Amino acid sequence: MRYIKLPSENFGKFFKSLGEWGTLYAPVKKGDIYSFQEVHDPAEIALDYTRTMLPPKKFFFRPKEAILRLKNGRWEEEIEAEPTVLFGLHSCDIHGLKILDKVYLNEPADPYYKSRREKTLIIGISCMPDEYCFCKSLGTHFAMEGFDLFLHELPDGWLVRIGSVRGHEMAWENSELFEEVTDEDLANFKEFEEKRAKAFQKELPQEGLADMLDLAYNSPVWKKYAEVCLACGNCNMVCPTCRCYEVCDSWMDAYSSVRERRYDSCFMENHGLVAGGHNFRPTRLDRFRHRYYCKSYFDPTAGYNCVGCGRCDEFCPAKIEHVKVLEEVRGSLQ
Amino acid sequence: MSENPYQTYDARILEVKDLTSREKLFTLRFLDPEVEAKFDFKPGQFVIVDIRGFGEFPISICSSPTRKGYFQLCIRKVGRMTKFVHKMNEGDVVGIRGPYGNGFPMEKMEGSNLILVAGGLGMAPLRSVLWYAIDTGKYENVWLLYGTKAYEDILFRDEIIHLLKHGEAMNCSVKLAYEVESPSCIYLEQGFSDRVCKGVVTDLFRGEEFDVNNTYALICGPPVMYKFVIRELLDRKLSPGRIYMTLERRMRCGVGKCGHCVVGTSVSMKYICQDGPVFTYWDALSTRGLI
Ligand SMILES: Cc1cc2nc3c(=O)[nH]c(=O)nc-3n(C[C@H](O)[C@H](O)[C@H](O)COP(=O)(O)OP(=O)(O)OC[C@H]3O[C@@H](n4cnc5c(N)ncnc54)[C@H](O)[C@@H]3O)c2cc1C
Ligand code: SF4
Ligand code: SF4
Ligand code: FES
């Protein structure tokens, strides 16, 4: 890794230069909600944001998108990917993208996701956890890869980690904005990370978690929470790693049709329905449990399907807490 | 060919045949000779059928890869899209992508006995195995145990009756169980009293002996059937690793993206479309919700 320093007074210039690499998006505050929006000026962005409602997956896997267009009886693919710079991703969201990569870049790669991923630069930024965050328990609180540049807050600027060749290029072309890192900067970096590590309020103990949950398949705790759950599917929409989709064809006119896909949710009753009306997950309990199992699945190459961002807790109208559910389920195993 | 895994290729319907009042057999061939030449599949694999402008749905290939120049799909009319294909005729064109899924391990099973256990529409993917085994002649004995509701519901009735009569010459023995009595069934039963009976598919195991060290069982049928059939096989001490079953889930993409076919829990999750649809009973033991 190469480390350089961006002094505070150069931040504005650096930020403006990012626009040269593509359309620039960054976290913006609207009412009480943060979201990634197109920005032009550093004054528009909320550097100290907690989490956006929709995660950055929306840039690669769209809430709704046309994948094919029927023209003269043949499907033509619809890929529009433009150079994009995503500024200000937190470490957990960078990990979330890695989990989506595992699905969408795996052979056969999804060409829509892939082309957008290739055309997008990722700039991470350090953060302080709030009461919903539990990324530290999952090891997703620090990103070692998956970004081009990562900015860590210092009292008088930013310690920048360079994570890719394109990251090197960005630093190279703006070399007059950067300085060498001093011992004092390193001490500040260390202090920030230590302070941050202590700030986590929520923890999800990992010891044997996957097996404990599997063993507690019939736990009454699943049932208790399934009864509280509204099956609204909010938790799926806001999750940086949920990526189920539904497909639908619709006619534009007598000769042309479009095949669209849109976010789907495993809380919907028809998610597990097959021919003949048989449903493999007929009850809300089945569907509730399925989501928790899916999120807690541990893939040896990519880790858990949950990165501990806390979105599902913050945006759950029934105030169901992810960690609490898992802890109670595990606890119910005598 | 396009790199886009969602692109489908034109295939012409060469023939449409009524199998029952609900199922039709479609014989297809790709229009583009290059696509046709490249298209190869294994028994147990499926394709996604694309009715452009209306949608897509997965269907098992029911013909054998040993028979070149065409492939066949047996489609039951259950809903919007399948109703639509049922209205199509010879000469019409549909989109096809695939083949998808793992298929049955035909090579690994060479030299062994095969017991095919089919319930209803489960006959479709197993027909591919059946003709593959007969055409290649690489298997000891092939038993087909087929459970059907009524005489009118027997899929590939001509072939089944042909095999009841002449199967022995091809090392193939067919047994049939029906649930609803009718003159035709009774007539069949009189002709083949040792092989046709009233009952469910598990009744066909009665009196059947097989060498558990040299036999594989391949199962396909409605969700409720698996548990009972597997119990019969385990009672006879067949190893779970020799029990193959092909499963169905809702599918949209067929290539491990859309998440619809995912089953399992925190310790083991599987995509039916990519890890399956063919699984062994070991898989069922380690993945909750598989059957
Ligand atoms: C691997 C696999 C192999 C199959 N092989 C065959 C076959 O050989 N022959 C055959 O007749 N059918 C087969 N099916 C089932 C077939 O895919 C469904 O009957 C078909 O999708 C229903 O579409 P529809 O539009 O007519 O029904 P819809 O109007 O969409 O709905 C009718 C019913 O089918 C269910 N359904 C809808 N889409 C799917 C889907 N993609 N997968 C499963 N169920 C769905 C609905 O939930 C509903 O219960 C197979 C399914 C799978 C997953
Ligand atoms: S957001 Fe909350 S209420 Fe809505 S489906 Fe998820 S857990 Fe249930
Ligand atoms: S399950 Fe909840 S905490 Fe975990 S990644 Fe998804 S939204 Fe974030
Ligand atoms: S069918 Fe889409 S993931 Fe299996």
Kindly describe this structure:
The complex is a heterodimer of chains A (334) and B (291). Helices cover 32% and strands 22% of the residues of chain A. Chain A is built from twelve helices and 13 strands. Chain A has helices at 11-18, 91-104, 111-118, 135-138, 165-173, 183-198, 209-215, 220-228, 234-238, 284-296, 311-314, 322-331; strands spanning 2-7, 23-30, 33-38, 64-71, 74-77, 84-89, 120-125, 149-154, 157-162, 245-251, 257-263, 298-299, 303-304. Chain A has a seven-stranded mixed beta sheet with strand order 1-9-8-7-6-2-3. In chain A, strands 5-4-11-10 form a four-stranded antiparallel beta sheet, with no helix packed on it. Chain A is globular and about 65 Å long. Chain B is of the alpha/beta class. Chain B has eight helices and 15 strands. Chain B has helices at 33-38, 80-86, 123-136, 157-166, 183-191, 225-235, 272-275, 281-286; strands at 9-18, 23-30, 46-51, 55-60, 71-76, 93-100, 113-119, 142-148, 172-178, 196-198, 215-220, 243-246, 262-265, 268-271, 278-280. The longest helix of chain B is centred in the middle third of the chain and has 14 residues, at 123-136. The chains are: A alpha+beta (334), B alpha/beta (291). The interface between A and B is large, with 46 and 39 residues. The complex binds flavin-adenine dinucleotide, iron/sulfur cluster (SF4) (2 copies) and FE2/S2 (inorganic) cluster (FES). Residues 251-254, 256-261, 271, 273 of chain B line the site of FE2/S2 (inorganic) cluster.
